[in-house]
Write a structure and sequence with these properties.
34% helix; seven-stranded mixed beta sheet; D-Maltodextrin-Binding Protein, domain 2
């Protein structure tokens, strides 16, 4: 089933959002004997992620809407003038870090805005407070709060909340993936010519030029291309079967840590960028490629992307 996108915009869904995002301050694991350490099985970690992103999404609705301010107040840039960060990004990440310190004391957090370092052997949380910040800045509804629990670079659980629509995407390793409680399954497409592919673009003008040249060669060979502006939501769309595949060079860990697991648990083939200090995969896609695809087209699409010079994009 293909995705139908509502055209009402961010404001029209206000009442629906206020109903959807109900925040609970209670515990997120089972009531029982209190242990010194919270449980770290994937399902318990998923409940934590769900609780925290739900609260963050609700909090975002209380903050000023940048698209209504019509000024640069509260907006700064990072790697390039087009790589923006808003006051809401930093406020949401601070909330997520504070809540994780309460629920999972002592566990490290790696975030897009606040940085951090993963520690081998223990649970590390990876957060993108607003994935799709440029969309959020302009008032477009495709942005999300993403949080994953990982260990040794492997995602164990994750949740992606869409503040504008109220959707909640979640997964726990080995336990499947859901959207608003409904099980997810990726596309059954097997014909590359009928494959709908999502993608994204880097902030570097030089890399964007290479990405555009690559996509110019890819487009005539597939059904079409889509770009929402949120890597996390595009990867979740593969999990739902709304896209058949997703390919981008350069996304960061926080962009895909939760969504990649959601797609994997929905049956997609998921190939993530190489971790620093680890050898690159010998698949000719490039060390920074994020490749997510329905299994029926994954092999053929990966081979085509390699032949078209995917490894040269990074």
């Amino acid at each position: 089933m293909r995705r139908t996108v509502a055209q009402a915009g961010p404001r029209a869904a206000d009442q629906r959002r206020s109903d959807r995002w109900t925040v609970s301050a209670g515990r997120v694991w089972s009531d029982g004997p209190v242990n010194d350490s919270p449980p770290d099985d994937p399902d318990s970690l998923r409940r934590v992620a769900e609780s925290v992103v739900t609260e963050a999404a609700a909090f975002l609705h209380t903050l000023p809407r940048p698209w209504e301010q019509r000024s640069a107040a509260g907006v700064s840039t990072k790697s390039t003038p087009t790589d923006v960060v808003t006051a809401s990004d930093t406020a949401l990440e601070a909330l997520v870090r504070d809540r994780l310190a309460q629920l999972r004391p002592g566990e490290p957090v790696v975030g897009e805005e606040g940085g951090g370092t993963a520690v081998d052997g223990i649970v590390t949380w990876v957060v993108d407070p607003i994935d799709g910040t440029v969309n959020y800045l302009y008032g477009m509804p495709w942005y999300a709060v993403s949080l994953a629990a990982t260990r040794d670079g492997v995602s164990l659980a994750g949740a992606v909340a869409e503040p504008a629509s109220g959707r909640l995407w979640t997964a726990a390793r080995g336990a499947g993936a859901t959207c608003d409680g409904r099980p997810l399954r990726c596309s059954a497409e097997t014909d590359l010519a009928l494959t709908m592919i999502g993608t994204g673009f880097a902030y570097s003008p030089q890399r964007r030029a290479r990405q555009a040249a690559f996509l110019e060669e890819l487009l005539p060979r597939v059904r079409d291309l889509r770009r929402s502006g949120s890597s996390a939501l595009d990867v979740c769309a593969v999990a739902a079967g709304w896209l058949d595949a997703y390919l981008e060079h350069g996304p960061n860990w926080w962009d895909w840590a939760a969504a990649g697991l959601i797609a994997e648990e929905a049956g997609a083939v998921v190939r993530v960028p190489v971790r620093p200090g680890h050898p690159s995969a010998d698949d000719r896609l490039g060390p920074e490629a994020l490749f997510v695809a329905a299994p029926g087209v994954a092999g053929e699409l990966a081979a085509l992307a390699a032949d078209l010079g995917a490894a040269e994009i990074w």
